[in-house]
Amino acid sequence: MHTTHPETHKKVRGRIHDCEYCGEPIVIGEVYESWLSFDGGRRYTVYMHKECATELGKVMPCGGELPPIGDNKRPPK
Fold first, then answer.
1. pTM of the full structure
2. Do 8 and 31 meet the contact criterion of CB atoms below 8 Å apart?
């Protein structure tokens, strides 16, 4: 699996995505991170609240497979 470096964005418009860490929606006005993953010829875009991505980095510092969506509590901002 190959992943790109995370990019930080502020949601200003467009489709509402669910955070891959906590399962809550990323709504307009929130800061989030996204990156691409490539696995077996398939491309995936991962979306996470900024604080969820930070928390994921603490529990999975070397990368690996994401925990199941919604199995984690959203950390405080």
1. 0.77
2. yes
